[in-house]
Design goal:
InterPro entries: Cu_amine_oxidase-like_N, Leu-rich_rpt, Leu-rich_rpt_4, Leu-rich_rpt_typical-subtyp, LRR_dom_sf, Mao_N_sf, SDS22/Internalin_LRR. It comes from Pseudobacteroides cellulosolvens ATCC 35603 = DSM 2933. By secondary structure, the chain is an alpha/beta fold. Among the domains are: 117 residues, 2-Layer Sandwich (Copper Amine Oxidase, Chain A, domain 1); 98 residues, Ribonuclease Inhibitor (Leucine-rich repeat, LRR (right-handed beta-alpha superhelix), Alpha-Beta Horseshoe); 124 residues, 2-Layer Sandwich (Copper Amine Oxidase, Chain A, domain 1). Helix content is 16%, strand content 25%. A hairpin with a 2-residue loop joins strand 36 and strand 37. The longest helix is centred in the first third of the chain and has 24 residues. It is flat and about 85 Å long. The two termini are 62 Å apart.
Length: 633
Amino acid sequence: MISSKNKLFKSLVIMLVFILFINSFGVVSQAEDNKQVVFVNERELRAEPGAIDSNGIIYFPMHPLCNALGITAKPVSQDTYKLTYAKLNREITIAKGNKTIIINGISHQLSFNVMGTYPVGTIEEYMIPLKYIVEQFGGEVNFAPELKRIYVTGDAPIKFKDKALEESVRALTKKPVGDIYKFDVQDIFSLDLSAKGITNIDDLKYFENLTYLDIRDNKISNLSAIENLKGLTALFVKGNDPSLDVFTPIAMFYENIKQTDISFDVKLDSNLELAIRTAIKKTTGKIEPKDIRGLAEFNASGKKILSIEGLNYMVSLKKLDLSNNSILNLGPIKNLTKLESLTLNKNGISDISALSKLQKLSALDLSNNKIKDLSFLKDLKGLNVLKLSDNVITDAAPINGLLNIKELYLSNNKLTDTFGLEKLMNLNTLYLKDIDPKDPKKVTSAIPKEKLKVFKDLFTKLKKTDLTKEEVGVPTVTGVTYSPTKATITPTPSPSTVPGDAILRYYIGKSTYTVNGLEYKMDTGVAPIIRNGRTGIPVKYIAQHIGASTGWDEKERKVTITYGSKVINLYVDIDYAMVDGKMTKLDVAPFIVNGRTMVPLRFVTETLGLETKWNEANKEITLIYKKINKKNK
């Protein structure tokens, strides 16, 4: 009975401690799915209760973190600890429920508690602010919220990219030699770097407490590092790269900057101004950057706009429609990096270089312009919809690496080739009329012979297109025989004849093979072979034992494997395959030996769901087929 009371008492104590922790730290209970995983020096650090967010401050168990970083943690008194890192001669004293921290004998007042406790089983675990403590001992913390991960690097000195900046910081910190850490610069509030020959200020991101920054008369071309310097009240930047984007990095706190040589006047095209006033519902008065920086969508289609100067202040835009205007210069939108949808059709645009950094774009409409050069789109890997019809494009090669494109519109340009568009395996919509001015009714005349086969299969899976079967050269009936010399098809076995589990063994250079111990023989002169480090095999001798069918199209030199609803098309001497209508890259292309087509073994077997094993000693290939695989049919 006493034991039961003790257990109840302990449970109540633990609950009380938990409540006190919540009250003192403001912790919001986190679901298991929302917990962030901590990695220290690339290794996962597991500790109960893990990382906990308290009012935006991440706390982590003290002892596991210190052990992982080589920091000694010793109790000084009850609920007070001294943390020591001998390598940097750094000593910190912290106490539970206290906002004061003592660093090498000097007290510092913080806005958050430096230590608390959290119940773990029947004990309390000391919790410390992860980022702050790690940085105080020379480490670095990077957050990856989309992955629910926190990456901690121990002993991470600042590696200055700019020598001139480093020299200035060393003079200010009175540290002419040795490593400089973030804690060395945390108490720097004012920084005059004017006329120092600086070209790169990326490492100013570590100076989080700066209030005054002068970087005039240098050679700086990028200010993105100052977007975290939210305490700035004075900023001077003149005399640097004329194309310097000043506003974007400070857009969310620019009104706090009272001393500056930057003009934040918004000079607008009169028609653009009317569209903006409608969007922000401000009919009179001066339009300030703060009025438009929060806009997520803006539609100014058909407003007779000539200039889009001022749109650079719309840093939160995700959707922008500027179609049917007379816009020539896209410069002001080059830094609107949050854009996901951009519509610019029916303008007079020829230069699209300003779009090269808009990595989040998923939909882009540039149709009905004067565009010739697509090279500035090659890095926009997130594009799903790309409209380029009615331009003067002669080369589509720059976009053949945009593998996420589902809809592509290229009609009415000056193309004479498909330029590798057959690589776009996710296409379901393709408009490509007038690809060949010499023969506009026959697309195939513009496509290199070796690409034509794959392009035809791409065509057959399209849901929408302006091409016809006749233009692409797709016959109404295709041969489906396997042998290059015969015209027969191996039918898919009926359900009653589909085999059960099977172990198939093949040997390099040997025409005999076994299925569940029974010996079979391939045709004369046929055997598995290794070419370019990959095994090739006539697929017929696999398919017939697992209930699949094979076919050969002599004209297209194409092998078709059908396994239930799964269809695989492979092409002789082409390193791409079509699997259920989607393009897939191969390590090695199919090839012909002694009149038989050899297909890449591992690709085919793994696509069909077979387990593949290789025995180097006797050059044996073992395939394991389980009847349960039929659920994937």
